[in-house]
């Protein structure tokens, strides 16, 4: 199955659970893409806590060949540019992810 996930939150627990699901799906041999929108585009600045090891989850997700994209407009609004975490993407890229996914989930 191909799973598309839209992450619209910068809340640590939402982000952490999004990546936990993505990792679980990748380990079960599914394809997973995560598209960061709104506050989710702040992923690279969300700090880890003792309860939520976000950076560890992101790195594991990427190591398992999960794909991450960030909304270019959402980044621009925040005065941010492309990060080391993921490339800048567009609404056309999001539409393509939705069209190509068997299931789409939204977190946040």
Mean pLDDT comes to 95
Report the top-level CATH class: Alpha Beta
- Can you write the helix and strand succession as a string? EHEHEHEHE
Sum up the overall morphology in one term. globular
Number of helices: 4
Taking the sheet with the most strands, its summary is: 5 strands, parallel
Number of strands: 5
Classified in CATH, the superfamily is DsrEFH-like
* Rg measurement, Å: 13 Å
What is the helix fraction of residues, given as a range? 25-40%
Q: How many domain regions?
A: 1
What fraction of the residues are assigned to beta strands by DSSP? Answer: 15-25%
Q: Strands across the major sheet, in which order?
A: 4-3-2-1-5
Secondary structure layout:
Elements: E1 2-7, H1 12-27, E2 31-36, H2 54-63, E3 67-71, H3 72-77, E4 88-89, H4 91-100, E5 103-107
Parallel strand pairs: 1-2, 1-5, 2-3, 3-4
Could you explain how this protein is built, in words?
This protein is of the alpha/beta class and 108 residues long. It has a single domain, classed as Hypothetical Protein Ychn, Chain: A (3-Layer(aba) Sandwich). Helices cover 39% and strands 22% of the residues. It is built from four helices and five strands, in the order βαβαβαβαβ. The chain has helices spanning 12-27, 54-63, 72-77, 91-100; strands at 2-7, 31-36, 67-71, 88-89, 103-107. Helix 1 runs parallel beside helix 2 (54-63). The protein is globular, with a radius of gyration of 13 Å. Pfam families: DsrE.
